[in-house]
Design a protein that fits this description.
Blueprint (H helix, E strand, L loop, with lengths): L4 E5 L4 H12 L3 E6 L7 E3 L8 H6 L7 E4 L7 H6 L1 H29 L2 E6 L12 H20 L5 E7 L2 E2 L14 E2 L1 H13 L4 E3 L3 H10 L3 H4 L5
Parallel strand pairs: 1-2, 1-4, 2-3, 4-5, 5-6, 6-9, 7-8
Amino acid sequence: MSNKTILILGANSDMAKSIAKRFSTEGFDLTLAVRKPKNESEIAFDAVDFDSHESFVKNLKALPDVVVTAFGVLVEGDEGFENPQLALDSTLVNYSGVVSILGHLSKAMAKRGSGTIIGISSVAGERGRGSNYVYGSAKAGVTAYLDGLRNYFSDKGVHVMTVKPGYVDTKMKAHMPTPGIVTASPEQVSNAVWHGYKSKKNTVYVVWIWRWIMLIIRNIPEFIFKKMKL
């Protein structure tokens, strides 16, 4: 009996590398997709080359059992404000790229009648905040998209899981010191993804406290929230 397979899109991020290692340890065969492959273990995937996504899926050696979308770029509030083109380009990666590639992959999975889609979203999408409103708006879209996809596929044999890591100690956040109690390691992310996959969770908060932090933030009255520098 052959091993199960996992396709990781954006496989060169710290989180993705840890997820790949964990699933490999559990016996999965890996397909690692990156924008610029550097060795024979990687294949080319460009999140914003939308016209290539259909052929990318058709050219896979095998339709994977599990797909993880782990690609993305972080644009903070001031960057997006000062450079609207940068803001637009980031949403094409963070939102449109996810919708495009999962549109083709999920269609193939539904035709087969099985599979798991794991989307890395963010707690940043739960309420727009001035510090990262462009990034947060894209992640809000990703979360809603995954919610809807999960509902659409409820009777088609395909499971969709949303992962909300919160702060993660990676290169993306290296310039921004974060509080230890709310910051996960890449290994914590991969463990949460694995256990969520095994138990068919719908939504996974990697660090449990984020669920309650965001519940509070979502319920702060707007007249107070506007005055807060979040």
